[in-house]
Amino acid sequence: MSNTFGRLFRFTTWGESHGPALGVVVDGCPAGLPLDESDLQRDLDRRRPGQSRVTTQRKEEDRAEILSGVFEGKTTGHPISILIRNKDADSSKYEPLRNLFRPGHADFTYIQKWGIRDHRGGGRSSARETAARVAAGAIAKKLLARLGVSILGYVDQVGEVRWDGAHFDADEIERNIVRCPDAETASRMEAAILEARKAGDSVGGAITVLADGVPAGWGEPLYGRLDSDLAAAMMSINAVKGVEIGSGFRAAGMRGSENNDPFEMKDGEPGVRTNNAGGILGGISTGAPIVVRFAVKPTSSILIEQDTVTTSGEKTTVKVEGRHDPCVATRAVPIGEAMMALVLADHWRLGLGSRIE
Amino acid sequence: MSNTFGRLFRFTTWGESHGPALGVVVDGCPAGLPLDESDLQRDLDRRRPGQSRVTTQRKEEDRAEILSGVFEGKTTGHPISILIRNKDADSSKYEPLRNLFRPGHADFTYIQKWGIRDHRGGGRSSARETAARVAAGAIAKKLLARLGVSILGYVDQVGEVRWDGAHFDADEIERNIVRCPDAETASRMEAAILEARKAGDSVGGAITVLADGVPAGWGEPLYGRLDSDLAAAMMSINAVKGVEIGSGFRAAGMRGSENNDPFEMKDGEPGVRTNNAGGILGGISTGAPIVVRFAVKPTSSILIEQDTVTTSGEKTTVKVEGRHDPCVATRAVPIGEAMMALVLADHWRLGLGSRIE
Amino acid sequence: MSNTFGRLFRFTTWGESHGPALGVVVDGCPAGLPLDESDLQRDLDRRRPGQSRVTTQRKEEDRAEILSGVFEGKTTGHPISILIRNKDADSSKYEPLRNLFRPGHADFTYIQKWGIRDHRGGGRSSARETAARVAAGAIAKKLLARLGVSILGYVDQVGEVRWDGAHFDADEIERNIVRCPDAETASRMEAAILEARKAGDSVGGAITVLADGVPAGWGEPLYGRLDSDLAAAMMSINAVKGVEIGSGFRAAGMRGSENNDPFEMKDGEPGVRTNNAGGILGGISTGAPIVVRFAVKPTSSILIEQDTVTTSGEKTTVKVEGRHDPCVATRAVPIGEAMMALVLADHWRLGLGSRIE
Amino acid sequence: MSNTFGRLFRFTTWGESHGPALGVVVDGCPAGLPLDESDLQRDLDRRRPGQSRVTTQRKEEDRAEILSGVFEGKTTGHPISILIRNKDADSSKYEPLRNLFRPGHADFTYIQKWGIRDHRGGGRSSARETAARVAAGAIAKKLLARLGVSILGYVDQVGEVRWDGAHFDADEIERNIVRCPDAETASRMEAAILEARKAGDSVGGAITVLADGVPAGWGEPLYGRLDSDLAAAMMSINAVKGVEIGSGFRAAGMRGSENNDPFEMKDGEPGVRTNNAGGILGGISTGAPIVVRFAVKPTSSILIEQDTVTTSGEKTTVKVEGRHDPCVATRAVPIGEAMMALVLADHWRLGLGSRIE
C-alpha cells in the first residue's frame, strides 16, 4: 500500500532514478474526460530538471507515454498507465557513494529497513519519483477544472528571503525562475540560491499552494479530513519537513477573537469574511480558497565535506558530487500543486453520496 | 473509512459529545498483551475535562469499559471495544446555537456536507471524540513499551509565551497544569491562559511529542512514510493547523551544511550525531528520537461577540457560552502522544516481513 | 482491517459469544436516512436463537441499542454504533471443551494463530457475531429500499432435500420455520433437520439470496467486481463452504449457446432475456436480479462422539453438548440477505462519479 | 481501488487487450528475493494464447519486462513494474461488434457504467488482463517457495466430462493439453472441447487449485478470512461463476458426523485426519492442503447466431468471429494458481505480528 496514494481517485508510482523508466498508474479517474499526452506535459516541463540556472543540469525530456485507459481521446474509467523513460542517468558519479551513508539522505534508513538499496541516483528515494506524481496530478487538475477548481502554487521563502505578501501577481510566478509572485523578491531569492551554490552549499525554502473554487462541503470526518489528507500529501514529498493550513503555526500565538473567521452573507450565500482557517473547518471545505504551505529542507547533497560512516561501519567523509538542485523549492511548486489536485480529486469522489435527498 | 485510522493496528471511533456514550474499536492489536481498564485510565485522566483551572469545567469521569477482545487479562487478537459514557452533558446551553454558525467551528461545513447536524456540544465535531483516541493510544503505548519505545509530549508554546528549550525536566511536565517541561515558563503560560479567559477570549499553543527507542528502519515508502502518517495523525486532531518534523519550518531558512545530520558510530552502530531530521529520513526512522511538533489554534468558542449568520441566512452575532477550555494545548498533550503511539504501533506491524533473510 | 467489511459503506464488528455484549459500527451511511431501533429488530428477530424447534434454544432477545450517528430520527453521516447485550450466555457447558479442539470448529486454528482463545461459546469464532452483521445489514436494506432495491433470501436445500424450483411463493418463506418458498418441501426439510438432531447429528444446507431492482451499471472492475465482493461476503459467513452466481457450478457442464443470455429490448431498454449470469456480467450488474447461492456445512457441534486431541497433544474424544442449531441454513437466510445488502450499499456509493457528463 | 488486489503483498494491473501493452505493479514484495524475468516466463507460457489446438490462435509471446524494483538480481522492497507488449492484436474483427452487445460479455454493462468502452478485443474486460496476474503470481510463488509452500492446479471438469478423482498423477497435468491429472480423462476432455468447437460452440469447466505446505495459523478474522479472500480472488477471474473450499457444495448434503475432520497427532503435532474443510477452519489454515475449486462458464464468444441488440436499441443477431478459446478452463489453471499464490503471500505478511511472545 505504501506506493499508492488516495482512496477512490488513486495512483501508484514505481521506478528508480537510474532504472530504465518510471511511471504511474492512475485508477479511479471518471470516464469521459478528454485526455492526451500534451495534457501531462506542461506540468512535467515545469518540474523537469535542467530548466534553469537554479536547477540541476540533468537533462531529461520527461516525455509521458499513456499506455492504457484512454480510448479515442477520452478516459474510459480504467487504469491510466503512464510511462516516463529515464534517458540521462549517469550512474558513474554514484559509484563512490555506494558504500557510505550520505547525510540527510535515505541511504542509511533504506539499508536498515531492506538490507539492500539501489544507490544509483538515490534509487527509489530520489525526487525523480515526483515526475510520476506530477503526471498523475495533471489528470486530477484537468478533472478539477471541469468542476470549477483551479490550483496555483508559488515559492514564498528561500532561505532567509521571505516574500512579504504585499504584491501578488499570479502571472509573475512562471515568469521568474524561482516561481515567486513578486519579481523583486524573486531576484533576491535567486541570488540566495546562487550564493549557496557558489559555497557548495544548498538552501531551504517554502511553498504555498492555493485551490480556488472548491465548494463548501468537501472533506470527510475524522480521519479523512481534508487538512489531514493534505498534510500527509505534502509531507510525502521529498525534503518536506512541515505543513500548515491557513494561519498555521501563527495560530499558536493568536487569540480566538483574532483567528476566528466571522461568517457573512455574500451573494445570498453564507461564507467566511476572512480566511485564517485556510478554507477548512472541521476537516471540511468552507468554500474559501484552500491554503496550504509547506517547508522544504535545504538539499542534502552538498559539495562541502561532511562526516559520515561507511556501510561497514568506518568513519569517513563525503562531498556529494553530481547534478543537484541547490534549492528544491522552485521545482517543488508543480509537485505541491499535483498533490493538492490529487487530494481534491479523491475528495470529490469520496463526498458523493454523503446524503440522500 | 473516514472514522478509522491505521492499516494493521487500526481503530474506529464513534459517538457524539452529548449522545449516551462514545467509543472506539481497536483492531489489529497482537494477542497476548496484558490489558485491563486501569491501563487506559491514566491517559484518560490526563485528557479529561475539569482537571484544572485552565480547562473546561464539564465533569466527566471518562471511565473506559472494555467490552471485548480481552480474555483472562490478555488481549486475544480480536477487536477491543471500549465504551465511555457521557454523564455530564448539558445540552441546554446549545439550544440558542442550533440555528447559527459559530465562527471557527464546523457547524457551517457540517451542514453544507450532510444537511443535518447534532448541534448539542458540537455533536461529532466535538473534541470529546479524542477521549476515544486516547483510550486506543493507551493500548498502543502498552504494546510499544514491550518493544522498547516510550512516548512523551509537552506544551512548548501558549500564545506568545514560548519555551526557550533551555531547561528540560521530564518530571516537571505533569507537575504543572499546562504540561510544560520548565516550571517558570509554565507559570507564564498559565498566566497567559487565565488572562485570555478573563477577557472572554482564548489563546493558541503548540505541543511537541517525542518517541524514544524507535529502532532504525520503521516506516514505509513513499505514501506510507512515517512523517507523512504522523502529519496526517496530528492534523486530524481538532484545532491543529500545522505539523512539523525535526527542524520543520526552520529548515526553510537553513543551509544544507547546517541542517544535515552527520553520521557517526555509537556503541558500534551507525547513527546520526544531531537530529534536525527529527528521527526520520526518507520517511523511515533513523533510530534517533522521533520529534513532532504541532500548533493548535485558539479555542473557537469565546465569550466575545462575533459576527455570523443563521442557518436561514440572516446576519446575527454570537457569544459562545458554555464550558470551554481557554487553551486546548494542555489537554492536547495526551492526544498527541496517543496519535504518535497509534502511528508507531501500526508501523511496527507494517514493517514485519519487509525483507527475507 | 480483518473485522471491517466494505469500502465506503462499511462496518466493523466486535464482541464474543459470552462477553458482556457485541456490536457493530457502521460508517459511510449517508445522512438523512430515517432510522430507529425498530428498523433493526425485524431482521434480528429472524436471526436470533430460540425462534423455533429447529434452532438452538439459547434465549437471546437481541435488542439493538443505537448509541450514535442518529439525530432526531435521521442518520447524520457519522458512525452508527449499535450495541447488543449478551444475556443468556451459559459458559459452564464449555468448561470441558477449554482444552481440546472440537472437530470442525476454529479452536485449533485460533490457538495456532494467537496462542490464546476465549473458549466460552466459541468466543469470537461464534456465529453469534452475525447478529452484528444483520443489524448493519438492516441499515443497508433501508438505504437500498430508497434506491428501489429489495432483497430476499430463502433455503433451497437441507441435506439431501433440495427444492425443485417449481413453485415459488415469496410469502411462504417466512411462514415455515425452515424458510423455504415451497410449503411441501419445507416440511420435508424440517423432517430432515429433526431426524439429524434425533441422531445427535447435524445437516448442511444451501441458501439463495436475490436482489431485485439493482440498476445496470453497479460494480467495479476488476478486483472490486460485484460477484467477487459477493463471494467474499458470503464466504465470510460462518460455515459457508461454497458460493455461486447465477448458473454457477452448473455452467461448468454447459455450452455457450445454452448459458449465454441473449439481449433484447424491454420497455425501450436493452436487457437480458434469461438470467444465467445471475445479474452480473464482467463484474457489473445487468439490471436483472442478482442471484447468489451459498452452501453451509452441517453444524460442527454434534452429540456423536468424535476423535480429537487436547491442547497438550493427547488423544481424546468429544461429544459437543450445549445448545446448537442442528442446521444453520434457516438462520443463515437473514445473514445472507444482510451481506448482500451491505455489498450493494457499498457499490452504490463506489459507483458515484464513475463518469463525468 | 478496483484494479488493485491484496493488502500488504498487493498488485495493480492495467492495460487493454489491443492497447500497446499491459502490465502490473507489484508492491509489498519483501526485499532480498532473487528475481529475474525468466522467473515470470514459465507461467506466462502456460497461460499464453496459441499454445495448443484447444486454445485461441492469437500469437502472443507474452515477454515480461521488469522495469523497477529489482537491483543486482534481487528485489529491493520497492514496486516491481512489469510490462508486457501486445503484439498480435487484430482489431479489424472487432469493428462489426463496436455497436452491439455480445451475449455473455461485459459490453453492455461497461457501456451502462462508463458510457464508453474500448471494443477492440474486449478492451479492459478481456481475459488478456490475466497475463498481468500470472506475472505477479510468479513472484508470489517464488516467495512462497522460500516459505515451503507450493501450488498446483488442474482441470477436473470439461463440460460433462468430470474427472473421477481415482488416479492422480501430478506429472501428467502438464503433459496433456487440457491439464488434467489423468491421461484417459484428459483425452475425453479434449474431445469434448474439439466437438464444441466444431459446432461453433464452447464448453465450460472446472479447476482445482491446491496449496501444500501452508502452516497452521495463516488467515485473518472475520472479513479477512483465507476462504473469503480466496473466494474473491477466484471470482475475480473472467468467466468464473462459482467457488468452493474443501467439500464445498457437497457439504450442503452432508451430516456433521461425515463432514467434520477429526483431529489426531501426526509426528507430534496435532492436525486433521481428513480434509473436508479444504485446509481452512474459521478462516484460518489448519496445516492441511488448501483446496479451492472454481467453475468457469463456457466461453461467451461463439460462432452460433445469437439474438442481441445494438447500442442504439435495435434488434439484431451476432456470430462472434475471431480467435477464441473453445474452453477457457485449460488456460485458467495458471491463473487460478497465481491468485492462490497472491492471496497466500498477502496472508503471510498480514499474519506477522499477530501475537507477542
Q: What is the chains' assembly state?
A: homotetramer
What is the largest interface, and how many residues per chain?
A-B, 115 and 114 residues
Give the topology string of chain A: H per helix, E per strand: EEEHEEEEHHEEHHEHEHEEEEEEEH
Task: Report the strand count of chain A.
Answer: 18
CATH domain fold name of chain A: Chorismate synthase, AroC fold
Shape of chain A: globular
Terminal CA distance of chain A: 35 Å
User: What is the CATH homology-level superfamily of chain A?
Assistant: Chorismate synthase AroC
Low-confidence stretches of chain A: none
Radius of gyration of chain A: 21 Å
How would you characterize the overall build of this protein?
The structure is a homotetramer of 357-residue chains. In chain A, strands 1-2-3-7-4 form a five-stranded antiparallel β-sheet. The model of chain A has no long low-confidence stretch (mean pLDDT 96). In chain A, strand 1 (4-5) and strand 2 (10-15) form a beta hairpin. Chain A is globular. In chain A, helix 1 crosses helix 3, helix 1 (37-47) crosses helix 8 (329-351) and helix 3 (130-146) packs across helix 8 (329-351). Chain A has 357 residues and is an alpha+beta fold. The first copy, chain A, has one domain: 4-Layer Sandwich (Chorismate synthase, AroC fold). In chain A, 26% of the residues lie in helices and 22% in strands. Chain A has helices at 37-47, 107-114, 130-146, 170-173, 183-198, 226-235, 256-259, 329-351; strands at 4-5, 10-15, 21-27, 64-66, 70-71, 74-75, 80-85, 150-158, 161-162, 205-212, 240-245, 263-266, 269-272, 280-281, 284-285, 290-296, 306-309, 315-318. Chain A has eight helices and 18 strands. Chains in contact: A-B, A-C, A-D, B-C, B-D, C-D. At the A-B interface, strand 1, helix 2, helix 6, strand 11 and helix 7 of A face strand 1, helix 2, helix 5, strand 11 and helix 6 of B.
